[in-house]
UniProtKB/TrEMBL annotation, chain A:
Protein name (Swiss-Prot/TrEMBL): Ribose ABC transporter permease
Spans through the membrane: 25-48, 54-73, 106-125, 132-155, 189-207, 238-255, 275-305, 312-333
PANTHER family to which the protein is assigned, alphabetical: ABC TRANSPORTER PERMEASE PROTEIN YPHD-RELATED-RELATED
Signal peptide segment: none
Species this protein is from: Phyllobacterium sophorae
Cellular location(s): Cell membrane
Length: 340, 270
């Protein structure tokens, strides 16, 4: 029988739980604890409708968080995503209002986001301004531009097509109720959620399986070593900022589409939620560490907290306090573990 | 050095290299050369310009003036990648490893192996890394751990493996044994001899006079950014070398120990 034991024990011994996986597991555990807690407090929390609401609300923070993760892993930070979101959304809104077809107008929004990211990247790599300052500047520039081009007024009456991306859903099943009126049997999977999954999978693949991903980690881990190893460090950073900007643009059109209104005041402080999602998910602001899956868990922890606390009637102010504590605790627990 | 080596043309010629930072001349009109199968020690105290000179050859730094020729042809290194393409590999004193990545990722960083679809071929990189690392150190384990968790010796092995894996012709070693124990130092010394026998040219930056006399065929001494002497190792004593390093000149009344070798090629003292 000892042979059999060996056969079992050896593979088990090989299963090493890396610190990264451990962090993700503990974050995932926290997420499920929160869900259980809120479900216990309010049965409606676990309903399909509320689940989809959380999904919808989290998709914007999730998209921003993925871009933020890319930048944070290179050792930088992008404070401009909330403002870029607003600028991209308003540009898309203005374009559609001016008669441009909706897909084209929305693409313009994403391009504007990517351009903002490119400016961030150039300021960081060519002008050698620290990412904090560079993106702080862009935060003001993008917000100011959004307010200026709209006259600080929301753009409404954008038409039904503009709202499709944010409010539509796939596999929506509508049957006929017994009273002869249409009845929603399955509300469908919201487009923003599908978009989030597609983006998350694509970016995760890029980080793990493409050399640009490897270079992003190497740049954040030891920039000088990466440069001496032949990694085009500046181009790698630029790519990260452009992707962050483009994803902020995407998040912007999703959000404005959901509101069917282009709001230049939207997305204030969203960059902080995105940073919190990345950090809760295990990203290190020192660079070199972070995953898309971790950030997704982080985004959902924030989303579930907000939604659950809302349903429990906790005020928005208290919510901020709680999320603040969660961020600090997440990083503290991580530090305790890596000190060992 | 054997006759065959003497007859071949230089692998590397650095001619009248100049580099200054602000008003400070880090490297002033320095010329050195390197033949295949030769180990040249680059000596000097801290700030003498030896690391700066080697960084110029490795493409990490651009000179203000001067030329670099490889096998008789002019080359220009704008980035470390240019130098590597010509077979110039460098083992930096800091090792230049990305701490969060594992050994194979570090070994292939900037030159990743890819599949047909352009994706990273981690399997093949792992197999290759295991092969080359085990050649240098049969006990090398933890290939999939982040290199920050490895010992100084293991990290050094990765840095060496990275330099010799890709068809190296000129190897620059910056204090390769400074962080190593006796067994690992012996391993590096053996490796240097083996690479030399394969016709690879090596620049060895070292503070350890013992290592230098043990391994080098020739020395170049730098003092305040200038090349103050190039000698065959048989020509000089340790005291001579120390005098050159500290004072920038030979002791009064110095004569080469072995006059016959004074006329050999490859000397470029100013």
């Amino acid at each position: 029988m000892s042979v059999d034991v060996d056969r079992i024990v050896v593979p088990l011994a090989r299963v090493k739980i890396t610190s990264d996986a451990l962090h993700k597991l503990s974050a995932l555990f926290t997420l499920f604890m929160l869900i259980a807690l809120f479900a216990f407090g309010n049965a409606a929390f676990l309903s399909v409708g509320n689940g989809l609401t959380v999904l919808l609300q989290t998709s914007v923070i999730g998209l921003l968080g993925i871009g933020m993760t890319l930048v944070i892993v290179t050792g930088g930070i992008d404070l401009s995503v909330g403002s870029v979101l607003a600028l991209s959304g308003t540009v898309a809104g203005l374009a559609v209002k001016a008669g441009m077809p909706v897909p084209l107008g929305m693409s313009m929004g994403i391009v504007v986001g990517a351009l903002c990211g490119a400016v961030n990247g150039i300021v960081v790599t060519k002008m050698r301004i620290t990412p904090f300052v560079a993106t702080l500047g862009m935060m003001l520039i993008a917000r100011g531009t959004a307010l200026q081009i709209t006259g600080a007024a929301p753009i409404s009456q954008l038409g039904e097509a503009f709202g499709k991306l944010g409010n539509g859903s796939l596999f929506r099943v509508i049957g006929m109720g017994s009273n002869g009126l249409p009845k929603v049997i399955f509300p469908g999977i919201p487009y923003p959620a599908i978009l989030l999954v597609v983006v998350a999978v694509t970016v995760a693949f890029m980080l793990r399986r493409r050399s640009i991903g490897r270079h992003i980690y190497a740049t954040g881990s030891n920039e000088e070593a990466a440069r001496l190893s032949g990694v085009a460090v500046d181009r790698t950073k630029l790519a990260a900022y452009v992707m962050s900007g483009a994803l902020a643009g995407l998040a912007g059109i999703v959000l404005m589409s959901r509101l069917v209104t282009a709001q230049p005041n939207e997305g204030v402080m969203y960059e902080l939620d995105a940073i919190a999602a990345a950090v809760i998910g295990g990203s290190s602001l020192m660079g070199g560490v972070g995953t898309v899956s971790g950030t997704m868990i982080g985004a959902f922890i924030i989303g579930v907290l907000r939604n659950g606390l809302n349903m429990a009637g906790v005020s928005a102010f208290i919510q901020q306090i709680i999320i603040g504590f969660v961020v600090i605790m997440a990083v503290y627990v991580d530090q305790l573990r890596s000190r060992r | 050095m054997n006759a065959q080596v003497k007859e071949s043309r230089p692998l590397v010629e650095m001619i009248d290299i100049q580099k200054s930072f602000g008003g400070v001349h880090a490297v002033e009109n320095v010329s050195v050369d390197l033949f295949p199968g030769e180990v040249v020690g680059v000596l000097g105290h801290n700030g003498a310009g030896k690391s700066c000179l080697m960084r110029i050859l490795s493409g990490a730094m651009a000179p203000n003036a001067g030329r670099i020729r490889m096998r008789g042809e002019d080359v220009r290194f704008v980035s470390p990648q240019d130098a590597r393409r010509q077979g110039v590999e460098t083992i930096y004193q800091t090792l230049a490893l990305a701490d969060h990545l594992d050994a194979p990722s570090n070994l292939f960083l900037g030159r990743e192996l890819k599949t047909r679809w352009g994706n990273l071929d981690d399997k093949r990189m792992m197999v290759e890394a295991r092969r080359v690392l085990h050649r240098l150190n049969p006990n090398f384990k933890n290939l999939s751990d982040p290199v920050s968790r490895l010992s100084g010796g293991q990290r050094q092995v990765i840095a060496i493996a990275r330099a010799i894996y890709f068809n190296v012709k000129v190897l620059i070693m910056d204090e390769p044994t400074a962080a190593l124990g006796p067994a690992e130092t012996a391993m590096v010394a053996d490796l240097i001899r083996q690479l030399r026998s394969e016709g690879i040219g090596i620049f060895l930056i070292s503070h350890d006079i013992h290592d230098v006399f043990d391994l080098c065929d020739r020395i170049v001494v730098m003092n305040r950014g200038r090349n103050v002497g190039g000698y065959h190792i048989e020509q000089v004593t340790k005291d001579d070398v120390l005098s050159l390093i500290i004072k920038g000149e030979m002791p009064d009344g110095w004569r080469p120990r072995n006059a016959a070798s004074a006329l050999q090629p490859g000397l470029n003292s100013h």
